[in-house]
Structure formats: structure tokens, C-alpha cells
């Protein structure tokens, strides 16, 4: 018999004040921008200043969110069997600076620090070094399903008793070259949009951002677990008319139907071209299911679904759906089962199913 998998704790650094685990969207920060940055915690509270100066932003964000998750789970660092991270861009800031240094210094007198920290697996490696964790250490770079890939790996290991406690998460940082490139190809909105009105923008592109979200996942429930992770499914490509069929098939594997879903969380980002995928799932079988969305709070980035996963767990833990994330007027109080659906520009679709413990 396969084990059950539980989300024991959460840790988040995002464009909202989520680094404080004692609150849950009590005060929402709004923006009128095309690009938003994370609200930085006081990194000195988590990282020695001398070490922080040498760290890329993605590493600092991940160190904070990972430490918060471990602290909340009351898990000793020695108890962590594996560290699994998903990232779309890794430490792209150091990659950019290293290449610039090559050009500026005519390929001479280069310091190794930025090169060492420029690889995608730097985050997982730095966390492991800080914890002294010598177990399974892996990084998934699968575009906008990078976080789901990491979570799926953790889920399978825990189900099959290959590990008992895993630290898993997703992280991406913003840098100017990345932003400039995506502006050029039209993936970022041309004009600033007030984040709370993003679904009414009627324009192409999204509001880009960054963030880090980590979770302690275990096959031991513990005392204060957030949820049970029932399943994850990803797809590289789907047509709009295939989404509902695949979602129902996914639920059927869990011996559930659309009527069993208390809340459907969707990754709307205000892109008029691709939000239609969420509308396609919102019809028919899920027409009467209460719905929520999250990218008006987190912004869009490769591992933004980590914020959606954080939101779902917080909702199950606290027993209510904040007004700021509700879609429409219907919202079931104290949801017991949540389905998350995310995609980016019509590709890399994911379905994640959670149940209250």
C-alpha cells in the first residue's frame, strides 16, 4: 500500500508580505506596474551579512522561505532526506553578470564566484550546504511546470517510501535583460495595469514578477499539517477543448468528480490571448464550482504556481477564502478539496489536487 503525502509547512517570499507565516493576506499590496518585485524580508535575520553579500537574490529568497518552512514544520535539518527545487531561470542574474564580465574584461581577470553561482542548481546546492544535507539533491528546469516537476518527484518518493521528509520548492528572480527581452516579444504588458483590475485589462501580455516558495512534504502527517497532496498531472500542450476532459480524467483517478471540488484555483494573469484556457475549464462540469485566482497578487513567472500552491494550503489551513482572491460571488466556506490549474501561454499545463487533513 502506498503512503499518503502531506504538506507539513509553507514558506514564501513574494510580491506580497508572505514571508511572515503568522498572517494570511491580511493586508494586500497593490501595484500599478508592468513588472513587480518581491517584498524583501530583512535578510540579516536569516543570513549572515557577509554571506548575503555574495548571494544571488534567488538564493537569498530561497534561504528565507526554506528556513521558514523548516521552522514551522518543527523539522530538524538532519531529518530532511532530500531537497528538490524547480526553477525556470535559476540564478539568471549571476549568469548575466558573468557574461557581461567576460565582454567587459576581454575574457581576462574573471572572478569565479558569479560563474559558480550562475548554474540552475545553485539554489538547491546552497540550501543543502547550509543544512548539511547529503541526500538526494535535484533541480528541475522545466519552464512553467518546474515547480510541479519538483513536487511530483517529492510526491513519488514519499509515496514509495524512498524518503520520509523532503524540502521542495520553486524560485525565480527578475533581471533587466530578461525583462527587456520579454517586453520586446510582447510577453509583458505594454502599459501599467492596476493589479486588482488585471482581468479587465483587455490587453496582451502579463505582469512579470519573481518569488520563492518552499514546503516541507512528508509521508508522516504530524500535528499541524496543512493538507494531503492527492495528485499532480502535467501536460506539455493541450487544446482548449481538451482541458475539461483531462481534468475529469485526473479526478477520476482519485475516485472523485467535479462535484467533489470545493474550490478551483486558476492561474489567470490578465493576458487576453491565453486566459481563455481558464474560461474553458470554468464552463460545463465546473460551472458551479467556486473559483479563485492568484497572479494579480504574485505576478507571472515560471514558478508562479508555487504561490498558487501556497494559497491553496493557506486556505485549507485557515478555513476560508480571502475576498481578494475570489472570482465571482460564490465561495464555499471552509473548502475541503481544492484543484489548482495553471498554464502559461497555452503550454505547460498542470493540475494539482489537495485535500484538507
TrEMBL record:
Transmembrane segments: none annotated. Keywords: Transferase. Residues 47-217 form the Beta-ketoacyl synthase-like N-terminal domain. GO terms for biological process: fatty acid biosynthetic process. The keyword Transferase applies. It holds the Pfam family ketoacyl-synt. One of its GO terms (molecular function) is 3-oxoacyl-[acyl-carrier-protein] synthase activity. InterPro entries: Beta-ketoacyl_synthase, Ketoacyl_synth_N, Thiolase-like. SUPFAM superfamilies: Thiolase-like (SSF53901). PANTHER family: 3-OXOACYL-[ACYL-CARRIER-PROTEIN] SYNTHASE, MITOCHONDRIAL (PTHR11712:SF336), POLYKETIDE SYNTHASE-RELATED (PTHR11712). This is 3-oxoacyl-ACP synthase. It comes from Euzebyella marina.
